[in-house]
Every structure is written in structure tokens, then in C-alpha cells.
């Protein structure tokens, strides 16, 4: 009789749980809505299996659903999609039914039960929803700044991306003056894996986006002053080259590039917190719009310039209540008698001031005024003897004690600083062509296999036509970097291993070749 009672109770519990499963699936669908594309499934699109382990009292509910992919603004067509198992959600509830205790694998005696009480049993429901995601060869969910990603198996193509500089700087406030606008660059090479691998640019497109940095207006006042500074009227969130915070990269001979991205250091999820190592999402697609590769690449950006270390009210006999107007006032006092023709208005009466209107700047490609020192030469000349020739001295103007833009292995492991490569303030002030005449790697790395084939490291190529920065990363961020976000793109390609590329040849090669990487 007791046995029959237990059987009936168990069957009743299963029936109850089966009825509850539909409600649980709806809950799971809502909870995981952000992980997969498409609208909630219709009733005919859902099949549910409920299985009970009579020994453990566990019901597993599996929701298999067919979803219609939703197009995003950057996707020209739907991709072939394959099911990817999503993380499971676990719900726990207590039910009341009678059953005979069964020994588990770690139990030697059955738990004691009294015949006068109704035993309770905690059941754990694990619901796994099958989500449909793009059938990418390296498909990954965009990783927020500061997070890590889970590598996926490589497919027929790999995407290698980088930023051309170790850091892109811009003014936090453009109301008084502008040294640099929001202007970031991304580069990509797409490799068709093989023996040998091939760099491809035809028949594919590469898109870029910043999943946690989708707007810049409101994070900076640049757009309020862009016309006065640069003589152009820009649409919101569109930069000086016409690029936005998402779009299609431009193909070149052996790579793809997006120049002039108006990125700020403030993420959407924390718009008042500086995060200088922003993550881009780069996706390569074939001519049919199918995703073939993706990666996540840092776009470094910072407003950390500590003019306030020196140019506070009262310093140099100037007090205007604002650091930048203190600088403009001092500039007028020291140099107004030398202002060139057509630029004789006092800076304080001509705000906002674009420094490269008079001082040429190779960083922006602006010629300035003939006979006037370049911006780099002028800045380093005026501060020679006032700013120490140390990394802390450099961090008065360059980002900075918090940002730590010099973060590569040569600094962290070997102690090589700005001064070791660039020299002190006086030497930098005498550079005849700043930004385009810079230290070379092969000055120290004298082995012929490390010889640069271009004037700058960021322009040089090596192994199989790959850019040096593709494998070793950006200037001042030579891998492995001290910043975790820099490592994500390498870990995505090297099964969780950080940079540089090269220790695992089968990222690009199908079989491991013999010989040196270089």
C-alpha cells in the first residue's frame, strides 16, 4: 500500500512539473533574451522534454526552438546559423512527496526518515535553451571593457586586428582649445588558413563596432565646436573622416582600415568612468554576408593630460579660473608679438583655438603656418628644463599616471622607458619630422631578421606579409601588455594564450611549418 502511494505521488509530481515547464521556459526565454537574436518563439516552435531522475529528484527541461534571425543595421543579410549551447539557468524549488531514499555514489548509509512526518525534497530544475548564433569560425559574444572572452575553434579564416598607435589622445573639453580631436584608427588583415596561408581582401568585407560605446555626443562637447575648429559641419557621432562608431572598414592592398573613428574613453555602461582601453568588435563576412571570422581589438583612447600639474591659477603670474585659458593667456603674453600674418588675434579672443592652425601637426596631417615650429617641437622646446626627463615627466602631458599608455613588455620586463628610445625633452624638441621620424626597432634588435622594411614600426611588415603590429601589437603596447584588454584578441586566436602571435603556428597554418617565424 505504501509502495502504491509512493508511486502515485511520484507520478503526480511529474505531471505537475510538466505543466510547470512551459512557464519555466517562458522565464528562461526572457532571462536569456539578450544572448540570442530573434523574437520569442511561437507555441509550435517549442518542444520540451522533461526527464526525472528517480534517484536524485532532478527534472531537466530542454527547450529547443527555431528562431528567425533579426537583422542589425550593420548586417546586410542573414548568416547561416548553427545552434550554440547557452549557459544553463538553474531554479530550485521544494516539493512534497514520499519516496524511498536511494543511496548516492558518495553515501554509505541511507538518510534517516521518520514514519510520522512527510519528507521534503528539494528539486533542482536545469533549463538549457538552444540559442542560434552566427556560424562564425571564431564566434564570440562581444566582451565588455575589462572582461575576458572564451576562445572558439578556428575555421577557414582568421581575423587579426590592431590599432596603429599605443594611445590616441583627445581633449576632454573643446570650449577653449583643441590639441587633438576624437580620432581613432583600426587595421585588420584577414587570413585564409592553409599551407601556406593567404592574406585576402577581395570578396570579403570587414565591419567594426563598439558594443559598449555606441555614441560620443554627450560624452564630449567636440561636436559643439567642430565647425569653429575644423571648418566642417558634422552629424552627431560622425568624425572628421566621415566614420562613425560602427560601419564598414575600407579595403587597401593587403589590409582593411577605418580611420578617424570619433571614439571616447567612456563606455555606455559607465559613461562617467574613464576606460582608456575600449574594445571594438571586428567581423569579416563573405560576399553573401555570411560571417567568416571575428575578433575583439583594443582601440586605446584617453583624455588624461595633466596641464593642471603646472598651469593652475597663480602659476606664471596668470589666473583666469581655467587651466586652458591660463595657457592661452600665457601664450599671448609670451608670443603675441610673433603671431604670423592672418593669425594676429589674441588667442583669448579667438576661442576655441586649434593649436595646429599655426603649428603643423603630422598626427593630423595639418601643415600649420610656414616658419612656425611644429606643435611637437614647440611643446617640447617650451618645456625643456621645466619637465624632468623621466617617465613621470612624460606623463605630465602624455596619458598618464592612471592610463599608463606605456604598457608593453619592453617597459614591464626590461625597464625600457620613453627616454631610452626617444631621448629627453631637448632631443625630442629637435626632431625634424615628429610622428614620421621615430625610433626604429632594428636600432637595438640588430639581427637582420628583425630589420624594418619601412621607416616606422607601425608601417613595417614581416612574416608572410603580415604587419609587425598584427603579431606584436601596437607601438607602446608590444605584447604581452600589462593591460588585460590588450590580450583578448590574442587569446581568441591562441586558445586562451596571450600575445604575441607566433607560438601557435596553426592559427594561420593548417600544419606546423619548420623554421623560424621571422
Describe the structure.
This protein has 518 residues and is α+β, with helices and mostly antiparallel strands. Among the domains are: 2-98 and 119-134, no CATH class; 157-305 and 435-507, no CATH class. Helices cover 18% and strands 20% of the residues. The protein is built from ten helices and 17 strands. Strands 1, 2, 3, 4 and 5 form a five-stranded mixed beta sheet that branches. Strands 6, 9, 10, 13 and 14 form a five-stranded antiparallel beta sheet that branches. The chain has a five-stranded mixed beta sheet with strand order 7-16-15-11-12, covered by helices on one side. The radius of gyration is 30 Å and the shape is globular. The N and C termini lie far apart (80 Å).
The structure class reads alpha+beta
Number of helix segments? 10
Largest sheet: 5 strands, mixed
Mean pLDDT: 79
Q: Rounded to an integer, what's the Rg over CA atoms? A: 30 Å
Give the percentage of residues in beta strands: 15-25%
Poorly predicted sequence stretches spanning 5 or more consecutive residues: 22-148
Q: Which term fits the overall shape? A: globular
**End-to-end separation:** 80 Å
Number of strands: 17
Order of helices and strands: HEEEEEEEEEEEHEEEEEHEHHHHHHH
User: What percent of the residues sit in helical stretches (DSSP H or I)?
Assistant: 10-25%
Amino acid at each position: 500500500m505504501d509502495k502504491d502511494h509512493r508511486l502515485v505521488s511520484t507520478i503526480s509530481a511529474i505531471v505537475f512539473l510538466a505543466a510547470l515547464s512551459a512557464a519555466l521556459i517562458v522565464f528562461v526565454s526572457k532571462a536569456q533574451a539578450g544572448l540570442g537574436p530573434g523574437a520569442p518563439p511561437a507555441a509550435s516552435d517549442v518542444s520540451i522534454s522533461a526527464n526525472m531522475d528517480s534517484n536524485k529528484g532532478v527534472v531537466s527541461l530542454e527547450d529547443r526552438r527555431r528562431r528567425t534571425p533579426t537583422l542589425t543595421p550593420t548586417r546586410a543579410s542573414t548568416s547561416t546559423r548553427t545552434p550554440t549551447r547557452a549557459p544553463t539557468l538553474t531554479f530550485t524549488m521544494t516539493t512534497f512527496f514520499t519516496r524511498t531514499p536511494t543511496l548516492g555514489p558518495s553515501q554509505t548509509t541511507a538518510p534517516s526518515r521518520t514514519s510520522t512526518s512527510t519528507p521534503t525534497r528539494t528539486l533542482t530544475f536545469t533549463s538549457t535553451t538552444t540559442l542560434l548564433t552566427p556560424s562564425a569560425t571564431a564566434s564570440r559574444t562581444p566582451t565588455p571593457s575589462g572582461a575576458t572572452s572564451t576562445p572558439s575553434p578556428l575555421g577557414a579564416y582568421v581575423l587579426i586586428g590592431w590599432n596603429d598607435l599605443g594611445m590616441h589622445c583627445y581633449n576632454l573639453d573643446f570650449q577653449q582649445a583643441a590639441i587633438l580631436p576624437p580620432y581613432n584608427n583600426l587595421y585588420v588583415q584577414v587570413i585564409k588558413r592553409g599551407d601556406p596561408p593567404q592574406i585576402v581582401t577581395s570578396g570579403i568585407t570587414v565591419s567594426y563596432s563598439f558594443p559598449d560605446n555606441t555614441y560620443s555626443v554627450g560624452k564630449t562637447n567636440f561636436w559643439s565646436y567642430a565647425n569653429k575648429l575644423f571648418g566642417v559641419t558634422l552629424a552627431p557621432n560622425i568624425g572628421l573622416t566621415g566614420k562613425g562608431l560602427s560601419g564598414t572598414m575600407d579595403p587597401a592592398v593587403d589590409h582593411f582600415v577605418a580611420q578617424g573613428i570619433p571614439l571616447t574613453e567612456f563606455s555606455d555602461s559607465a559613461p562617467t568612468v574613464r576606460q582608456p582601453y575600449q574594445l571594438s568588435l571586428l567581423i569579416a563576412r563573405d560576399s553573401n554576408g555570411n560571417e567568416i571570422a571575428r575578433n575583439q581589438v583594443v582601440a586605446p583612447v584617453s583624455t588624461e593630460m595633466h596641464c593642471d600639474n603646472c598651469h593652475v591659477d597663480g602659476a606664471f603670474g596668470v589666473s583666469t579660473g581655467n587651466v586652458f585659458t591660463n595657457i592661452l593667456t600665457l601664450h599671448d603674453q609670451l608670443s603675441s608679438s610673433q603671431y604670423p600674418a592672418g593669425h594676429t588675434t589674441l588667442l583669448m579672443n579667438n576661442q576655441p583655438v586649434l593649436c595646429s592652425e599655426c603649428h603643423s601637426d603630422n598626427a593630423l596631417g595639418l601643415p600649420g603656418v610656414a616658419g612656425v615650429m611644429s606643435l611637437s617641437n614647440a611643446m617640447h622646446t617650451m618645456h625643456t628644463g621645466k619637465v624632468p626627463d623621466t617617465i613621470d615627466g612624460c606623463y605630465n602631458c602624455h596619458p598618464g599616471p592612471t592610463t599608463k599608455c606605456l604598457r608593453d613588455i619592453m617597459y614591464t620586463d626590461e625597464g625600457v622607458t620613453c627616454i631610452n628610445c626617444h631621448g629627453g625633452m631637448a632631443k625630442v624638441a629637435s626632431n625634424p619630422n615628429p610622428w614620421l621620424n621615430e625610433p626604429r626597432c632594428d636600432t637595438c634588435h640588430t639581427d637582420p631578421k628583425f630589420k624594418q622594411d619601412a621607416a616606422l614600426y607601425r608601417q613595417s611588415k614581416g612574416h608572410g606579409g603580415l604587419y609587425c603590429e598584427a603579431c606584436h601589437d601596437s607601438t607602446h603596447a608590444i605584447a604581452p601588455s600589462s593591460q588585460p584588454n590588450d590580450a583578448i584578441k590574442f587569446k581568441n586566436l591562441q586558445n586562451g594564450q596571450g600575445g604575441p602571435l607566433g607560438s601557435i603556428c596553426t592559427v594561420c597554418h593548417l600544419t606546423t611549418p619548420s623554421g623560424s617565424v621571422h
